[in-house]
Design goal:
Largest sheet: 6 strands, mixed
CATH topology of the largest domain: Nucleotidyltransferase, domain 5
Structural class: alpha+beta
Distance between the termini: 32 Å
Shape: globular
Strand content: 15-25%
Mean pLDDT: 85
Radius of gyration: 29 Å
């Protein structure tokens, strides 16, 4: 060849790198430009750095050192970088120092997808998943573990001191503190400091590597991590809202996620979420927003999973008699008002069965020694309406769609993209990193959409 080919000619028009390049060029990057310094050597162009970062995450490459290697070996990376080769430290610093600015790209990409009709808002599903923090589980401490470890260290220190005294004999006084005991004493002081910090911040556990991470339950056991949240649109499984929290529970995340969906793309017609989000307050919120929601509460979900013979005494079969202020069980026994119970800033009306001692169905109804007890929530009306909706054929059909909308997205993030662990530490940085992951996921969906319709990224 008289002239070597242009690097762009080596990539097809629908290659993900080409689409990322074209779309990033249309985005407003003024927030990045305003941070550039006029002193020293010129910085790498933010657009180029964003392109290689997004393409790396979309390709399952998260390490800055691996990105640096790809800039030397991969045609797609060389094309996006225009033959420039920033080192791994530059890539890492750009990622850490521009997390808040990257957040704005998420909404810009959603705006682009909305303009090409990739978002329908017909059915939005919300879910959360625990993702491992960049911290060792062994460095996560809670009160019981701290007290147990301190006792073990004290016992070991006493034993070492005793052994040293018996070995040294009468030529030494035995008052000298052995070196192993000194090390254990230092560790005990550190554990006591951690315990005091736990008491001050009011948390149940604390990780010394990443203090913002929390101990969370996963299908594979307890792990130190964060709770990643996504809201997904049904039409093309685009992530339309995302966040990360160190609260292991999902229930407090529903309202903020709905508000973010409304801010990013608009109010959804149908909303679904699993029982982790089910509470009276949340159901009242979606009713006020006039959203057709399908969210089971934990009690209803538990009743659905019980064997058929036990469902005869499930909570929904106890009929409320407002005139007599009591509940009537399936066998006709009455549960009368007993007292007011305070629970999580709510006042519950508690009803108890008075004839449980002679009831032939007692063992099937409850395991409690005081008979069956029912607590009436201030949101009992909203909970019952939701249970009836979910128990209908239409409700079951709509709620089942949740599994095909949001759950495959986490499967894609963890298996296809390979994101199972955060690289950054601290809640603020972790949130920014997860935003990059969600942008990468949406770019993958956008690439498939444009390929199927043979549409150019820029028109």
């Amino acid at each position: 060849m008289l002239f070597p080919p242009h690097i762009r000619q080596l990539l097809p028009d629908d290659h993900p790198a080409v689409i990322i390049n074209d779309i990033v060029d249309t985005m407003d990057l003024s927030a990045f430009y305003s941070k550039l310094s006029s002193q020293g050597n010129p910085a790498y162009h933010p657009a180029m750095m964003l392109k290689i970062l997004i393409y790396a995450y979309a390709s399952g490459i998260f390490s800055s050192r691996k990105i640096q290697r790809a800039l030397q070996e991969s045609v797609a990376f060389i094309y996006l970088a225009a033959w420039q080769k920033p080192d791994f430290r530059t890539i890492s610093d750009f990622r850490k120092n521009n997390l808040s600015e990257i957040k704005s790209l998420f909404s810009q990409l959603l705006d682009y997808c909305g303009r090409i009709q990739m978002i329908s808002l017909g059915h939005i599903s919300i879910d959360g998943s625990r993702i491992k923090a960049n911290a060792a589980d062994e460095q996560t401490w809670h009160m019981e573990k701290i007290d147990r470890t301190i006792k073990q260290l004290l016992d070991q220190a006493n034993q070492i001191d005793s052994d040293e005294d018996s070995i040294l004999g009468p030529e030494k006084s035995g008052d000298e503190v052995p070196a192993p005991v000194q090390k254990q004493a230092d560790r005990i002081r550190e554990l006591k400091r951690i315990k005091k910090e736990l008491e001050e911040i009011g948390r149940s556990n604390f990780n010394t590597t990443d203090p913002d991470a929390s101990l969370m339950k996963t299908p594979h056991g307890l792990t130190t991590g964060f709770n990643a949240q996504v809201a997904v649109d049904e039409k093309h499984q685009l992530i339309v809202a995302e966040d990360v929290t160190n609260d292991p529970a999902d229930v407090a995340q529903l309202v903020p996620m709905i508000e973010q969906v409304e801010s990013n793309v608009g109010k959804p017609v149908i909303l679904s979420a699993d029982s982790g989000y089910g509470s009276g307050e949340n159901l009242k919120c979606v009713q006020d927003k006039k959203i057709d929601a399908y969210i089971p509460d934990p009690v209803f979900q538990g009743d659905q999973r019980r064997p058929a013979k036990k469902k005869f005494f499930e909570r929904s079969r106890f009929i409320r008699d407002e005139a007599k202020d009591c509940f009537v069980c399936p066998t006709g026994q009455e549960l009368f008002f007993s007292h007011i119970q305070k629970w999580k800033n709510k006042q519950l009306r508690v009803y108890k069965c008075r004839s449980y001692a002679n009831c032939p169905f007692r063992d099937r109804c409850t395991r409690g020694t005081s008979g069956r007890i029912i607590s009436l929530s201030p949101y009992d009306k909203e909970l019952n309406e939701m249970r009836k909706k979910l128990d209908s054929q239409a409700g079951k059909r709509i709620y089942r769609r949740r599994q095909t909308i949001v759950e495959p997205v986490f499967a894609t993030l963890k298996n296809a993209i390979g994101f199972r662990r955060f690289l950054l530490r601290g809640l603020t940085k972790v949130r920014g990193e997860f935003t990059v992951v969600c942008i990468a996921h949406n770019f993958r969906k956008l690439t498939n959409y444009l390929r199927q319709r043979k549409m150019p990224a820029r028109s």
